[in-house]
Amino acid sequence: MNVIDDFKKKKILVIGDLMIDHYLYGETKRISPEAPVPVVRILREDNILGGACNTANNIVSLGGKATVIGVVGNDEYAVVMKELLQKKKIKSILIKDSSRPTTVKKRIISKGFFQMMRIDHEKKCPISEKIAVNVFKEVKKIIKNIDAIIISDYAKGVMTEKLTKSLIKIAKENKVLVTVDSKSKTPKMFKGCDLIVPNINEAIMMSEIEEDIFEMGKKISSMLKSNVYITRGSEGISVFDKSGTHTHIPPVQAKKVVDVTGAGDTVIASATLALCSNLGLIESARLANFAGHLVVQKPGTATISPNELKGAKKDEIHHFLKESIEVKQKVIEQQLDQIENAAKTIVNAYAKGKKVIAFGNGGSASDAQHFIGELVGRFRIERKGLPGIALTTDTSVVTAIANDYGYDQVFERQIEANAVKGDVLFGISTSGNSPNVLNAMKRAKKMGCKTIGLTGKDGGKLIDLCDISIIVPSNNTPRIQEAHITIIHIICDLLDQEIKKNEKFSNILR
Description:
- The structure is a single chain.
- This protein is an alpha/beta fold.
- The chain folds into two domains: about 1-20 and about 50-100 and about 125-320, Ribokinase (UDP-N-acetylmuramoyl-L-alanine:D-glutamate ligase), CATH 3.40.1190.20; about 335-505, 3-Layer(aba) Sandwich (Rossmann fold), CATH 3.40.50.
- Helix content is about 45%, strand content about 25%.
- It contains 16 helices and 18 strands.
- A nine-stranded mixed β-sheet has the order 5-4-1-8-9-10-11-12-13, with helices on both faces. A five-stranded parallel β-sheet has the order 15-14-16-17-18, with helices on both faces.
- About 45% of the residues are buried.
């Protein structure tokens, strides 16, 4: 993907709560004689960048350039953090505050128990006005040389309301993208940011809505005048643009989840880089979804590389193609007779001077038009055009009927006007339950037309109204539609073969 290659050109400022994740790895073989707790013999220790530092680490790991600005204590861990950032080639502006410690999360990891305990060294209170002014001064120095600001707010006190509002204001003045990952209980201070990325629990807190994802996202988007990604773990990402329009990004094909630590940092980092690289809101969410899926397969506070992200996209493409093949294999196993009978019915209708009328909604409307295009135009052989009508092509008729009689009548009314006994009505509905398709088929049956239904799932109500029903046995609408167009092409192939060999159609061949 070219957009991933463009990440290396992007300069991202990460500002917020800087942390160190200190891991103590050991083994447990006995219970303490002092208390009923396991004894862990420490074998090794690691210091890893956490919090906003991990977000910056994800930026660099994905190929971008990162600078972090934040507050640390006047202690040994501030020195450790500086060294870790330098080692990862992350520029840092660390403002010391002797009144608070550098935030450190210590995790004790034991074979057989995995993570046994976490110990937090931190001070959760707002930074002083003086420290906040110093932070903002540093931002002003570099604002013209960055592409985006990520506010990584773990509610430890660095992102005060005044500082946050000032950051968003100066970013807008300099046309710099602002994205937010926050655990704050006062989300209104992020009003005007370009994107905020809460997880489901944070979204509940921000919106004060507990169950309705749609209303939750709309409220947050409206409140902050911002685009919103609600990350939902194994359920994917729900995207709300600034108007509140909802698009759901489904989860990536399930694999083993090892550790969700820092997954939000990966999502915000990859989404920000994608948006900076001119990828749209929805496609950026898809890419971030892939990134989050990859990182939770790794232990601890982890990152991913551009090649891993590219590879994951290829894996997903492979999955989609395999899924499509599996659905078509089911069609082979279950629907060959119906497809053959549908082709014969259309051949017989044309032999008697009749026509084909096709219709459907959305993607099925496109399929209906495609089918009629193959008939009136040509498929494989040179022949005269075959009579056919797609009921979705005349916008004046469709909108007049929908306005005067209701959308459920848009096909029935046209069939009443254009169909005659013996015509073939070809209705397409992935669910088999579209009211306007059902009404049209009822009318066609009363008029003595032949009816063919192309549907999915269990066929729905449509199968009871059709002489021939071709059912794609799947609940996945895109896979159903892919099989539908394949079936339409097969019918066209069979029709062309019959026209070529049958003397009844000699006047049709050129």
